[in-house]
């Protein structure tokens, strides 16, 4: 009985230490994860994606879960550093106004984020069937499907709790 109680407590503590999916803590971890993925850090430089930033020095991604109605989006900011497209900020929204010619707003239900994060389907299917909705430069996104697919997988690689809303 004591062992079962200790195991339950350990599970509860582990669950409490996981950030909630699409929370500011989750965004911080996703930002760190971004910087470990060459398809994001390198290919988004080669394609010119990272430098399409209206001369601000960064691009902004806002993401959120549509079924978490009262939860704000989170922000990831991407900037050219050391010839790489690096995530330099992940957390609460700091850039409330997005420029849809360079920035992205992406949202989906929790179920769909989890499916995309596991690789059940990529960005083409997600957008074609409106499982992932987004505002931003569509043509630029279409030209970067490989990195976009890696971003969707990144959302699932960050250990998180999807049972609650941020």
Brief summary of the model shown:
With 166 residues, the chain is of the alpha+beta class. It contains eight helices and five strands; from the N terminus they run ααααββββααβαα.
Describe this structure in words.
The chain is built from eight helices and five strands; from the N terminus they run ααααββββααβαα. The chain has helices at 2-17, 24-34, 38-41, 43-46, 110-118, 123-128, 138-142, 145-157; strands at residues 59-65, 74-81, 84-92, 104-108, 133-135. Strands 3-2-1-4-5 form a five-stranded mixed beta sheet. The longest helix is centred in the N-terminal third of the chain and has 16 residues, at 2-17. The protein is globular, with a radius of gyration of 17 Å. The model is unreliable at 5-14 (pLDDT under 50).
Kindly list the characteristics that best describe this protein.
alpha+beta; Nonspecific Lipid-transfer Protein, Chain A; 5-stranded mixed beta sheet; 5 strands
């Amino acid at each position: 009985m004591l062992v079962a109680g200790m195991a339950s407590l350990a599970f509860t503590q582990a669950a409490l230490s996981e950030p909630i999916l699409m929370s500011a803590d989750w965004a911080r971890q996703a930002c760190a994860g971004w910087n470990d993925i060459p398809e994001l850090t390198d290919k988004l430089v080669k394609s010119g994606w990272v430098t399409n930033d209206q001369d601000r020095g960064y691009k902004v991604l806002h993401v959120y879960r549509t079924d978490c109605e009262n939860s704000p989006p989170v922000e990831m900011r991407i900037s050219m550093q050391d010839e790489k497209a690096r995530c330099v900020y992940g957390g609460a929204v700091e850039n409330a106004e997005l420029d849809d010619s360079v920035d992205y707003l992406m949202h989906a239900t929790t179920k769909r984020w989890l499916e995309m994060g596991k690789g059940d389907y990529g960005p083409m299917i997600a957008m074609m069937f409106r499982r992932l909705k987004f505002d931003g430069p569509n043509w630029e996104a279409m030209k970067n499907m490989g990195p976009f697919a890696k971003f969707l997988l990144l959302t699932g690689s960050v250990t998180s709790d999807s049972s609650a809303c941020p």
